[in-house]
Amino acid sequence: MVEFLQFTLSGIVFGMVYAAIALSLVLIWRGTRLLNFAQGGMAMLTTYVAIEVIYKTHSYWAGFVVALVAGLVLGAICELTVVRPTTGKPELNAVIVTIGLLILIEGLAGILFGGQYRSFPAAFSITGIKVGGTPIGVSPFDVFVAAAVLVTTLALAVVFRYTSAGLRMRAAAFNPTIARLSGIRVARVLTVGWALAGLLGALAGVLVSPSTFLYPNSMDTIFVFGFTAAVIGGLDSPVGAVVGGLLLGVALSYAGGYLGSNVTVLFALGILVAVLMVRPDGLFAGARMRRV
Amino acid sequence: MRTLPRRLGVAIIVGAIVAFLSLKLNPFRDYQIAEIAVEVTAVAGLTVLTGLSGQISLGNGAFMAVGAYTTALLLLHLNWPFYLVLVIAAAATAVIGAVVGIAAARLHGPYLAGATLMLGVALPAIAYVYPATFGGDQGLNVVFTTPAFLGVNFPPTRWLAWVAALVALITLVLLANLDRSRIGRNWRAVRDDEVAAALDGINVAAARIRAFVVSATSAGLAGALLAIVTGTVAPGAFTITLSIALLTAAVIGGLGSLPGALWGSLVIVLVPTYVTDVSTSHGLSSTVGSNIPIAAYGVVLILVMLLFPHGIQGGLLRLISAFTGPNEKSRIRRSAPTPHVTPSADQATASQHEKEGTS
Fold first, then answer.
1. Which listed residue, of B90, B115, B191, B318, carries a Cα 20 to 30 Å from A196's Cα?
2. Which range marks the domain in which residue B195 is found?
3. Can you give the pTM of this predicted structure?
4. Does residue B357 belong to any structural domain of this protein?
5. Tell me, what's the ipTM?
């Protein structure tokens, strides 16, 4: 029973990280109808920036803030330089461009920072919290991870729902042509969407790296699970991204805990297939229209 | 009926060029020829799936793993002749491809991409779960001997290059025939408009599943070749990087085009090797030197996609049409992956919204 609680709680913590990556993919998908394969690589690069700042300033929080800002800037730069020129070309071209971007970023990280594994500091203690003498499977830092993603998600939700900037972004995602006719600068909105996605990715990178180490490919697995979470939830639904992330995190935690770490990816495939067989467009897909 | 002899002719000429190259060049080049042949076989199957039937797959590396492990197990335990092993490996992957195709028939776009990506990640993990059968992390060794009639001095890599190139050419000829057959036309109809295809009496689900079977079989053959070329089959060879490289090669070469599959394979095999040669000859430090090819490869992918929207083959055809007149342009359009070339980004995204009903 204690074991079950431990697996559940640690699953929720990892699930929040997957949710952050999934959310960033959903943001980009809603705006540009594009899967950003470079999302994990971008997060890895901003985490390297954070670690360099932490070494220089001896302040975790300086690195944390710089990483988030770097994520914003990197997202915007990527959109403006390589993604925008793909508009109007075949859909898959943009996907291959983001794959090229991922490879380029991983190569650059190798050149700039080397390929060795680096440990990344945590903001708070990583020894497990004990309740009445029994460890419950999460540390104070894990609580911070979950809280940070939750707060960021809620802040984004508030921005999207209650501010005029959020309204413009939703309009641009819903129908770019009408949004443009209504005076919204759709191109700028897309850049902002990529910047926000970059920020979410950077957050995920900083939060997950204390438990995975940091190296040029360190975010690949996290990206795959984040993508899976987004697909489970439905790529058009921010709520779906969070639910998908939590669902996947908890399920993988049980699979890893009870069945062994070798079967986790098989388990993830099983969940994904099961969900897609019932809901081919994810759990939170809207009504499907088809143009005849 | 005239096309079959013509394609066989092209295949024989290409085969002769490969044989000539392999006799003239050193064993390392032979190995590269074999590598390219493996790549082409897999990429050609994927370009048919994604370019002709319109289904994306980020998991064809998993089918290669199935073909490779089947080959390794048959050679290891039963020691059957290779051509027989090749047939069994193809059949085994075809069955797996059918299962995946049935599951994938309802999925579209990113959902299909996500499902196949996870397949590519998960399937090779079975090797870790059953280490007694599949050798775990170490994998299985594959012994492939050069036939005696070639003599003792015949380089083994040359024989590997010949076998791999032959299988690749046969696969390409068969795929080219499928492409121009009724099956290929049905794929294009399904790709361009599912509803219209269904109204024309095409069984959409069957066409899509058929494409997956063909694609998986090609990947299985490529996996069988990879097993004998590298001499070992381990899960580390079938990472998600492999699956992504296959899709990249298909798109870079020109999606839906079989010559494009060759160009794309040449790019992904030769560009990293070439840049490594250049950077080591300039005496760069190992950290920088080993990462520059990676970064340069990324830049090449981005540039090709931005400069040649229809891949290298599309660029070549445009170049040819510049000399021969507008007649050839129709071929560019026919090989283009997306039929609706919209003038502005807004309209493109807007029409997608209509199609997929976003809210």
1. B115
2. 3-342
3. 0.84
4. no
5. 0.85
